[in-house]
Write a structure and sequence with these properties.
By secondary structure, the protein is mainly alpha-helical. The chain contains 16 helices and 4 strands. The strands form 2 sheets. A two-stranded parallel ribbon has the order 1-4.
Amino acid sequence: MSDNIPKLKDYMVSEKVGFLLEDPLDTLPGYYRPWQDIAKNIGSFIEARTVVEKVDGMPYLREFDSNWSEDEVTKRKERCLAYVFLTFIGSAYIWQQGGSDKTSKERVMPIPEQLAVPWHTISKDLGFKPVPCMASVALNNYQVVKEKDKPISIENLEVICTVPCARWFFLVTIQVEVDAVSGIQAILRGKRAVLDGDDDKLKEAIRGITESIAKIMRTSQRMSEGLTGDEFYNKVRPFLAGYGPGTNIPKGIVFKGVSETPLEAIGGSAAQSSTIQCFDAALGITHNEKPQAYLDKVREYMPPEHRNFIKALWKEPSIRDYVKRSENEELKQRYKNAVETLLDFRKLHYGLVRSYILKPAGIISRSGAEVTASPSVGEAKEEEGTGGQRIVGKGNFLEDIEGTTEAAMNDV
């Protein structure tokens, strides 16, 4: 068997912070000050309903692609930060301009050239989409602000940009990525153990995967410390929404100066996190055709290097295949424990979806019973997550992937 074990540095995955950008910047060179000034104050502009006014008065930085630093590492970090700034500005502009009212359903929404051209260009160059996603709200949107010599935690993290009520949501999301680092490293040790035929090292690696997922669960359970369901549903969720069919802007967005053809994009979704798809790949958990098609689709919203890392993890050597062939019962139990912990996380996540989307939407009652029918044709579908996946009813996306995860646990 060839050595197909991926190296983190080849996929822009940090040994320190995983899929987060390591040591991100929080300021850009002076030329880009107009973007920075709006983005860092976007929350107050949203509250004052002056985002459109600010964008309309924003100068067109025509030389935006030639004022980066010469050092390539710094240049990439600057472009990632510019992407964060422009995505926060762009999404706030869309939703104040009419993305949350019914008039937007009747027309294609234009974004002015001074925002559209740099936002679209920088997104494309980085391999991102011009829409809120993990790369804009989490991976490139944080700073370690105190006790930098200590392990990263929510308590010493701060976001660079935020919108009303979203700061805690973003911090929890960022911390989840930090919690995943030990699991990512354990995955690679596990693959090495498979190559070496070392059951003891594989057991320890699988334990590391399990403990990492457990940490992610503990962090996710903290969401209620700083965010209510009504706050998320009414303040944060609209900011994360996409544009195109099934949204409040079904005819899409025209990026002036880029193309007159309307563009579509799905909104931000937890499924866009590379982390959980990595655990699926490491543990060999395959899903049914429709859910898997959606998971494949959202990879397009991940940084290109990270989606390639997931593909690399699906290649041999396979931890699951090795465990299934093994007669080592302790090894099999360790594997089952890991998959069961991932299943527990998926159940926890579904509980968060119910608390932060379905209950505030009135789709289920506070006691948990479904109470409403589907919305009218053309209206944004509240039975769908911000990424467009169906999240209520028998056999919905979340229930489906829970089922296939449980099946993987029982079939070893």
